[in-house]
Amino acid sequence: MPDSLKMISVRSVYKTFGNIEAVKNVSFSIGKGEVFGILGPNGAGKSTIVNILNTLVRPDSGDVIIDGVNIRNDGETIKLIMGVVPQEIALYEELSAYENLLFWGGLYNIPKAELRAKAIEILGFVDLVNRKDDRIKTFSGGMKRRINIACSLLHNPRILVLDEPTVGVDPQNRNHIFEVIERLNSEGMTIIYTTHYMEEAERFCDRIAIIDSGQIVAQGTLDELRHISGINDSGTSGTNLESVYLKLTGKELRD
Amino acid sequence: MFRLFKKDLTLFLHDRRSVILTFILPVILITLFAFAYGSIGSYDGRSEPVELLVADLDQTSSSREIIQKIDLLEDITVVASDSAEAKKSVISGDYVCAMIIYKGFQDSLKYGSSIQVELVYDRSREMEVGILQQNLTGTLMSSAGVIIVNSSIEKYMLEHFPDLEKSTRDDIIRTATGDDNRRLSVKWTSIVGERNDTKLGLIQAVAGTAILMLLFSVAGVGTSILEEKENGTIKRLLYSPLKGSTILYSKMLFAFFISILQLTTMFIFAWLVLNMDMSVSIPGLCLMIIATSFAVSSLGIFLAAVARTRQQAQNLSTIIILVMSAIGGSMIPMFIMPAVLQKIALVSVNYWGIQGFYDLFWRALPLKEILPRILILTGTGLVMTIASIRLFMKRIKNL
Fold first, then answer.
1. For a tag site, which of A119, B58, B138, B296 has the least CB within 10 Å?
2. What is the tens place of the pLDDT at every residue in A88-113?
3. What residues of chain A lie within 8 A of the CB of B246, using their CB?
4. In this predicted complex, what is the ipTM?
5. B398 chain-A contacts, CB cut-off 8 A
6. Is B180 helix (H, G, I), strand (E, B) or coil?
7. Pairwise CB contact (< 8 Å): B15 & A94
8. Least CB-CB distance to A95: which of B3, B11, B238?
């Protein structure tokens, strides 16, 4: 991929916590407007990679360049470029949806009037404008997840990182979330999607990196992964990725 | 930082339970304790001797003899002083009582007039005063009584039986002397808390309970950091352009603000509803509220910094708060406690806070006199703040 098309470039990144090697020699590139999936079981190192990209965790070695900015030199700019949707529903339950949006957006020093308008717009985007004044604690799990995403969009990030955004969400709300992500991507936003659900990775991701024990085992489009794994089965897509994963890691994803 | 502070305040106001715990419960407890402490002060003994300041202005053999006898008592240790210094020390709370033997003491014994001794004391320390009253009155009366009877009999014998041998005269005096002190009385003068109308029990109830409840409220603010860590909002805050230190400082600021608000509310309640006399040093009161709030809020944050989970922080806070409040005088007035506990109490924030409020409301001391307590509270707060910052900044990286 030519540098001009790259939004994110990760090269030979290592990170250890004590004796645990959380990330080992990880390299990948993500193009502008691309949806990049990081697929792996819990504890594989997905969240550590997300935290490195967002400058929350400093890599022991290696380079990370985001939109031409080295994360070691200018962490603040990275935080403005990037929106991160954490795995947890990181919202204040006692505040209303609108108050949450105003609070989280306010951290990016967005002018008040602009922020208010943006909050209403995003509430409409996630289809919750009619619940704007209700406290988060009265929301269903899926609605909370949508607000969780909405809070990361207020500062107009160019990159959106979604860390397992559909954990514990019912199918109907999951579809709502999928629609939101697809619309964001259609507007040109670069998306990093970490998940351990095969079907989600297959549905959105232009390219997928399979990670296991802190290492990227393989990466590419679904077809490239099939080729790498030596599986040319053209059956149902869900089965395909699962087979690819099994072949590449030697274990089931649920392990 | 203000945005985070405002968010915490909004969350606090939304949480009715927190508001009740912070304001309503302390008010109820203060009222209950104020009634309960209305009848405190029963004497139940203690092992350490009470220090008695003695100013001997008479400087005669009789005054020295009495001082020596008092010093021999098991429960009292005599500390020499002068009259003005002795009174000042009692007022400032350094000593419970001072005995002033005025000039003319020996003559008053000889001529049977009222004896020239005054005992000035702090009635807030009822137990120690009780010990002194019990021991001192007896010794003083018997010693003075003996001197009076001796001199009266000797005078009579010399006048009427001048030829009697000295040994016979001494035998007669020894036989005649007893504890005849029916005519004698010693003046006991309370010199602390007389200017102020506030009852001692009320000061104890307000100061003790307010600080106890303050600790619980602030521990709640502290554990909210761990709650935020557990539900992911701290991590999300760190994803934003905010610095880790800003998050911590805003929590500290919020804990400090709530502490000041809570303490101030308690004193206003005590003033308006319980008729607490507020004619004290207002700068002193403000500084005491600020210093106590700072020390207590720092302790709350420190406890949260030490713990790794919210549950751990809650358990740790409950234990530490109850122990500190018990030994520091929040639950039981200090003067009822054994001497050894009174010394241990020095490590408690409650002790310095409560004693500072005693200084203000009971002893009516000016700001200058309570500055050491304010400095100790501020210093304690600073030490715990620095320790909390270090612990948090170390841990925040592992979120």
1. B138
2. 899 999 899 999 999 999 999 889 99
3. none
4. 0.87
5. 17
6. coil
7. yes
8. B11
